[in-house]
Write a structure and sequence with these properties.
The chain has three helices and six strands. It has about 200 residues and is of the alpha+beta class. It has two domains: about 80 residues; about 110 residues, no CATH class. Strands 1-2-3-4-6-5 form a six-stranded antiparallel β-sheet. The radius of gyration is 21 Å and the shape is elongated. It starts with a helix and ends with a strand.
Length: about 200
C-alpha cells in the first residue's frame, strides 16, 4: 500500500512540474512573476521531497517505478523546449488574428490610444489576448514595425512577435530594447527577446 502511495505521489509531482513548465508564462500573465514564486517553490519543493523519498525507496525496497518517473520528469524538464513549443503554438494559432490587427493599424482604423505613450495601442476586447501584459501593442517610432508582446516584463525585459511589412529584420535597438534574440518565424514575422 505504501509503495502505491509513493508511486501516485511521484506521478502527481511529475504532472505538476510538467504543467508548470508548459503553462508558466500563462500563469505569470494572470498572477505576475512575484506571485508565481511561491507556486514554483511549492511545486518544485514537493517534487524534490518526493524525489528524495523515491531514492530512499529505491535503495530500501528496490522499487524502480517511482524513481524512474522522477528521473524521466527531470530529464524532460531539463531538455524539452516547453517555452518554444508554447510560443510556436501561440504564433500559429493567432497569426491570422494578428494580421487582422496589423491591417487595421496600416489602414489607420487602429491608432495609438494610450494617453501616457504615443506609440501604444490598446487593442479592442476581441483582440486583447493577442498581446500579453495588458492587451497593448507597440508601434516602432519609424511607424513600420508592430510588436505583440508574448512576455511584458519589467523595464526592458520583454519578448514578442514583430510584424515587419517589408520583411526587414528588426534591429537590436528597436522598441527601445536590447534584443538578444531575433528569429525569423515566417514572411514578415519575427520573434524578439530583450533581457
Amino acid at each position: 500500500m505504501k509503495h502505491n502511495r509513493l508511486f501516485f505521489l511521484s506521478l502527481a509531482s511529475s504532472i505538476l512540474v510538467i504543467l508548470i513548465a508548459f503553462f508558466q508564462w500563462n500563469l505569470i500573465e494572470i498572477i505576475t512573476e512575484f506571485l508565481m514564486l511561491p507556486i514554483w517553490l511549492v511545486v518544485f519543493g514537493f517534487f524534490i521531497v518526493i524525489t528524495v523519498k523515491t531514492i530512499l525507496n529505491l535503495f530500501k525496497n528496490k522499487d524502480w517505478k517511482p524513481f524512474t518517473i522522477q528521473l524521466l520528469t527531470t530529464i524532460l524538464w531539463l531538455f524539452f523546449p516547453f517555452t518554444q513549443v508554447m510560443l510556436n503554438l501561440d504564433f500559429k494559432m493567432n497569426k491570422s488574428e494578428r494580421e487582422e490587427v496589423v491591417e487595421m493599424v496600416e489602414q489607420g482604423t487602429l491608432k495609438p490610444n494610450v494617453s501616457y505613450d504615443s506609440l501604444l495601442i490598446h487593442l479592442p476586447k476581441k483582440y486583447d489576448q493577442l498581446s500579453k501584459g495588458g492587451g497593448e501593442i507597440v508601434i516602432e517610432k519609424n511607424g513600420n514595425l508592430i510588436l505583440f508582446f508574448t512576455y511584458r516584463g519589467i523595464l526592458d525585459n520583454f519578448s514578442g512577435f514583430v510584424y515587419s511589412p517589408n520583411d526587414k529584420k528588426p534591429s537590436q535597438s528597436d522598441f527601445d530594447g536590447d534584443f538578444k534574440q531575433i528569429e525569423k518565424l515566417d514572411e514578415n514575422w519575427y520573434f524578439v527577446g530583450s533581457y
